Amino acid sequence: VQIDNQRIPPHHTVYLTPGGEQLTIQALEGEADVLLLSGEPLREPIASQGSMVMNTQEEIQKAYMDYQRGFMGMPWDHALSDDEWREHVKQNPSRY
Q1: d(CA 63, CA 66)
Q2: Residue 56: strand, helix, or coil
Q3: Is the dihedral of CA 40, 59, 61, 73 positive or negative?
Q4: Containing H/E element for 58?
Q5: Which of 6, 19, 58, 71 makes the best surface tag, with the fewest CB within 10 Å?
Q6: Which residues of 17-31 are buried (b: 16+ CB within 10 A; e: fewer)?
Q7: C-alpha distance across the termini of the chain, in Å
Q8: What is the pLDDT of residues 55-75, one digit of tens each?
Q9: Which residues in the chain come in under a pLDDT of 70?
Q10: What are the residues whose beta carbons fall under 8 Å from the beta carbon of 3, sequence distance 6 or more?
């Protein structure tokens, strides 16, 4: 992927500065998946571990306990088709 004339290696995170009016993202070789997130600064404590992001380590531990008890939905097979995924979500809804 190339962002504003700078090549970005696969599986890398890019932090953009605020401001500007245009962003150009170009796939250099075939197709590319890009996740673009934006928002206001949180201005609060952030704790992270693995795939969990919360405000404190205690909240991280509780989130992992909730995950292990199935409160965040059941783990899924990444090879599912869109229809299979929708059926999986119906059968295993999040408990929150």
Answers
A1: 5
A2: coil
A3: negative
A4: helix 57-68
A5: 19
A6: eeeeeeeeeeeeeee
A7: 37
A8: 999 999 999 999 888 888 766
A9: 74-78, 94-96
A10: 14, 23, 24, 25, 26
> In which residue are the tokens 């600064």 written?
41
Give the count of alpha carbons within 13 A of 80, CB side only.
12
Please report, for the chain, how many H helices and E strands are present, in that order: 2, 5
Q: What is the DSSP string of 14-63?
A: --PPS--S---EE-SSS-------------S--EEETTEEESSHHHHHHH
pTM comes to 0.48
Six-digit token pair at 72?
């965040």
What sign does the CA torsion over 36, 75, 83, 32 have?
Answer: positive
